[in-house]
């Protein structure tokens, strides 16, 4: 049962990062303005390339988490999931300190929960 829960959390984190990819790469100047209301509206267009680069990194994190589901060896699969969840957690912790505390709760907390659960079942 706990394996199902940890896999669901891993998928949720991956889906969140696919959403971040879409938002930052393809909807930065439209939907991005609604999501990031505290960001100055006049800076969305000039930072479009930077946001797209951030989105690409989020896509790599999501792809790594999804990849962990296709690895036949359960120990390797757990290690890959742990690596990418740790990357997400570190990014979320850094973002929480440097940008907004909300980033910590949206990004780092789910990843940290996943890390703890993966370590628990090992």
Entry summary:
With 122 residues, the chain is mainly α. The protein contains five helices and no strands.
SSE blueprint:
Blueprint: H1 2-26, H2 31-35, H3 48-67, H4 74-98, H5 101-121
Helix pairs in contact: 1-3, 1-5, 3-4, 4-5
Order of helices and strands: HHHHH
Large-scale geometry: elongated
Helix tally equals 5
Structural class computed from helices and strand pairing: mainly alpha
Explained architecture:
With 122 residues, the chain is mostly helical. It has one domain.
Identify the notable features of this structure and list them briefly.
membrane, transmembrane, transmembrane helix, mainly alpha, 122 residues, DUF1304, 5 helices, elongated
């Amino acid at each position: 049962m706990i394996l199902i829960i940890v896999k669901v959390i891993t998928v949720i984190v991956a889906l969140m990062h696919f959403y971040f990819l879409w938002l930052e790469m393809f909807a930065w100047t439209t939907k991005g303005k609604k999501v990031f209301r505290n960001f100055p509206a006049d800076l969305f267009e000039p930072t479009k390339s930077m946001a797209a680069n951030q989105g690409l990194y989020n896509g790599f994190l999501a792809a790594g988490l999804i990849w962990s589901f296709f690895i036949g060896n359960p120990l390797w699969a757990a290690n890959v999931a742990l690596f990418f969840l740790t990357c997400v957690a570190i990014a979320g912790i850094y973002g929480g300190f440097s940008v907004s505390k909300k980033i910590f709760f949206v990004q780092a907390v789910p990843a940290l929960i996943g890390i703890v659960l993966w370590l628990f079942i090992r």
